[in-house]
Every structure is written in C-alpha cells, then in structure tokens.
C-alpha cells in the first residue's frame, strides 16, 4: 500500500505540474484534491518524496496566492503566498544546482506577498508582512528598503511591483516545473501507461 501510494503521489504531482503549466483550472483543482488526499494519508514523508510533497504544496498555494481570504496555516495572518514561501524554502534545501532560479523565485514570491496586500488596499498588513519576511535586518536589505518605500506610496502600480509581477512569478514557477518534470521522467505509473 505504501509503495502504491508513493507511485500515486508521484503521478498526482506530475499531473498537478502539467495542469499548472497549462493553466487548466478545473483539472488542476481535481488533481490538487487527489494530491492533498495522498499527502494527508502519509504519516511521515519518505526522504525521496520530500521534493514531490513540497512542490505540490507550493503549487496549490501559488495558484491561490491572490486570495487573501484563504488560509493554509493556523495563523490567520499568514497569506497563501507566505505559506508558499515556506514550502519554497524547504524545496531550496533539497536542491543545490538551481541557485539563480531559486533566488529569482524567492524574490518574486516576497515581492508578490507585499503586492497582493497592496492591491487589496491592505497597506498596514503589507507593512506587517514586510516585518515577518525580513526578520534578519541584513538579509536582502536593499529589497526590504525598496518594499518599505513602495508601501509608503500606497500605490500598488509602482514600477517595482509591475516589473516583478504575478505573471512573471507564474512563468518562473513554470520554468522550475519543466526542470522538475525532466528530472522525474522515470515516474513509474507514467512509464507503465506508456507501454499500453
């Protein structure tokens, strides 16, 4: 059962990736439910499946990133994109070779966390989020300062937020998915299906 569940989770993740990349909403949500049920059924994530689980959780949250009313964490203040950032951090720890792409995606998620709050006119919350995002004052100090300035303008359409848009984030995530799919071409269920 455990082995079959692993195969099914790999398959669900590859379907989730494909439908995220194709932006086919209904299919994405169907596979989200399948992946979530499989993930919830695992008492402990086997080390070789951590990336698969983290990627599923990341995609589910990115797809809902603009929906501030949705909660993935127990803390009501944590937006879907903040939750996505925590899974992105876990994914980064599992890989070494994609440093440039990792950094680009991390920066885009951070900027979009602030941008989504501003688009919804939640300026006070945007400032609070900024504090949570950059607890270490030296980490990414230039970005922190720029975002603090943007929040003070109370203008969600400033060039910084336009240059690092949500659609750019989605396209970078799609680039990451492509690499993930190439790396996981040996997906057992897909191999079996191709034989028939």
Automatic annotation (TrEMBL):
It comes from the Eukaryota. GO terms for cellular component: nuclear telomere cap complex. GO terms for biological process: negative regulation of DNA replication; negative regulation of telomeric D-loop disassembly; telomere maintenance via telomerase. GO terms for molecular function: ankyrin repeat binding; DNA binding, bending; double-stranded telomeric DNA binding; G-rich strand telomeric DNA binding; microtubule binding; protein homodimerization activity; telomerase activity. InterPro entries: Telomere_rpt-bd_fac_dimer_dom, Telomere_rpt-bd_fac_dimer_sf, TRBD-Containing_Protein. Residues 7-192 form the Telomere repeat-binding factor dimerisation domain. Keywords: DNA-binding, Nucleus. PANTHER family: TELOMERIC REPEAT-BINDING FACTOR 1 (PTHR46734:SF1), TELOMERIC REPEAT-BINDING FACTOR 1 TERF1 (PTHR46734). This is TERF1 factor.
């Amino acid at each position: 059962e455990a082995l079959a569940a692993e195969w099914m989770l790999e398959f669900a993740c590859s379907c989730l990736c494909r439908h995220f990349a194709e932006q086919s909403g209904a299919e994405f949500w169907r596979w989200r439910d399948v992946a979530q049920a499989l993930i919830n059924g695992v008492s402990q994530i086997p080390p070789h499946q951590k990336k698969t689980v983290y990627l599923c959780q990341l995609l589910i949250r990115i797809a809902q990133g603009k929906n501030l009313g949705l909660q993935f964490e127990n803390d009501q203040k944590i937006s879907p994109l903040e939750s996505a950032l925590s899974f992105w951090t876990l994914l980064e720890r599992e890989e070494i070779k994609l440093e440039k792409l990792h950094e680009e995606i991390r920066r885009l998620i951070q900027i979009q966390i602030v941008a989504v709050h501003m688009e919804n006119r939640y300026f006070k919350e945007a400032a609070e989020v900024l504090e949570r995002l950059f607890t270490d004052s030296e980490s990414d100090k230039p970005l922190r300062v720029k975002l603090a300035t943007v929040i003070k303008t109370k203008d969600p359409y400033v060039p910084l937020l336009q240059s690092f848009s949500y659609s750019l984030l989605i396209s970078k995530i799609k680039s990451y998915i492509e690499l993930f799919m190439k790396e996981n071409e040996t997906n057992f269920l897909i191999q079996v299906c191709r034989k028939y």
